[in-house]
Each structure stands twice: as structure tokens, then as C-alpha cells.
């Protein structure tokens, strides 16, 4: 499945929606990750493209992505 920002923003973890985030063109499902409960994690919101955040502000970096389910590809608008 391919997501643009409009599509991805619908998967914000709110009102029963799944929580997805995009990093480097890949969309990951963070719905079942406790740290992403409610679609929020350390000030970041699900339904967003977070490549810069994970590369510059995340203490765990990209290694956590290996544990997530890939649900699609992200294409910028």
C-alpha cells in the first residue's frame, strides 16, 4: 500500500484508528507499541513522517524499526 501525507495522517492512533509512522519512505505500524499509546510518543504524533526525528532526536535510533510491521511505502506529496 502507498501512503502520501494526507493518507498517513488518518492513521494517527486516535478514535480507534491504527497508529502508523513513516521513516525513509517506509510506513510502520506502531499501534501495538505501548510507548505509542494514544498515538503519541515523547511529543511525536502518529500519522506523520518522522525520518528527521528518528535520526536527530531518538535515543534508540533506527534499531527499533526492525521490530515493527511494515504496512506500506510513503511517497511525499
From TrEMBL:
<dbReference type="InterPro" id="IPR036400">
    <property type="entry name" value="Cyt_B5-like_heme/steroid_sf"/>
</dbReference>
<feature type="domain" description="Cytochrome b5 heme-binding">
    <location>
        <begin position="3"/>
        <end position="75"/>
    </location>
</feature>
<dbReference type="Pfam" id="PF00173">
    <property type="entry name" value="Cyt-b5"/>
</dbReference>
<protein>
    <recommendedName>
        <fullName>Cytochrome b5 heme-binding domain-containing protein</fullName>
    </recommendedName>
</protein>
<dbReference type="InterPro" id="IPR001199">
    <property type="entry name" value="Cyt_B5-like_heme/steroid-bd"/>
</dbReference>
Amino acid at each position: 500500500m502507498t501512503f502520501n501525507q494526507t493518507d498517513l495522517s488518518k492513521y494517527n492512533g486516535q478514535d480507534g484508528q491504527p497508529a502508523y509512522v513513516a521513516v525513509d519512505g517506509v510506513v510502520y505500524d506502531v499501534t501495538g507499541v505501548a510507548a505509542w499509546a494514544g498515538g503519541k510518543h515523547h511529543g511525536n504524533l502518529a500519522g506523520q513522517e518522522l525520518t528527521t526525528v528518528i535520526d536527530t532526536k531518538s535515543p534508540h535510533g533506527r534499531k527499533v524499526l526492525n521490530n515493527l510491521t511494515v504496512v506500506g511505502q510513503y511517497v511525499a506529496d
